[in-house]
Amino acid sequence: MLHLRLITPGDRTDAVVSAIESMVGTTHLVVLPGAAREPRGDLVLCDVAREAGDELLRKLRELSIERDGSIAVENIDLVLSRRAEAAEEEAPGEAADAVLWEQLTEVTHEESTLSITYAAFMILATMIAACGVVLDNAVLIVGAMAVGPEFGPLAGVCTAVVQREPRHALRSLGALLIGFVSAIIATTVFSLGMDAIGQFHAEMLERPRPNTGFIWQPDPLSFVVSVLAGMAGVLSLTSAKSGALVGVAISVTTVPAGANAAVALSYGDLAQMWGSVEQLLINLGGIMLAGVLTLYGQKALWRTQRGRWSRRPKTT
Length: 316
Fold this sequence. Notes:
The protein is an alpha+beta fold. It has helices at 13-22, 50-62, 65-68, 82-90, 101-111, 116-135, 138-147, 151-162, 166-196, 202-206, 220-238, 244-249, 254-266, 270-311, and strands spanning 2-8, 26-37, 40-48, 70-75.
């Protein structure tokens, strides 16, 4: 379930309470008149089944509560209450399938912010992958995939497209582009430095690499895997099953492709460099396409659920 903490202007508290009471899947309603000091207003608390959370938030935003007061939402890990059980039973659908669009927008906005930390993770992940490429070490490749933060901006682009927010889409694309360009440049310099101290050699890149040769040799299966990973990644975000993101990260060769391009560039191997770039673009495109289609599918599903809510009376 979700716990909502609202600060409502006094003249809208009755409307807020009415919206909560009429909504299926809500319970534990508490109203404390005049309890809020900044901003001034009434404090309203309630719990709501995750399946009904997005619809309730939509109604609250129609009352402009987020503009003149505040709306805070928390996940409840454990609630022992028969009323809570009844609220979850009367809300249509399953909690794991519910999408909180406001939360998704906030999470992807934060994860797609171009920051020093984001750039550092991108550069470090690409450098780790470069070591894996040269050593033909699959363990290092998997580790680099898990460290790479690129799925945040990818999810940000998908969410912004579905929510029709072009400014946020461009912002996420910018973070993605700058992150990969800076990582490739830094890793090229890193590769040259490792060559200078005798740790990297051109022969290590050119020799047969059964564990990592696929990185710069894209095929139709590369696109299929990226599409499947994009669907899994978006589902893991919208269903709050963030643990699945690790599996998504290690199933797509975005960071390793950037690393292979950087190492190949440092040795002037243009064939491997362009093959790696092609692999990178295929994976990025497949993830974004799958993410957008998955979110549109979920939006259509919950539009149907909204119709069920409007026709289903709240039990008392």
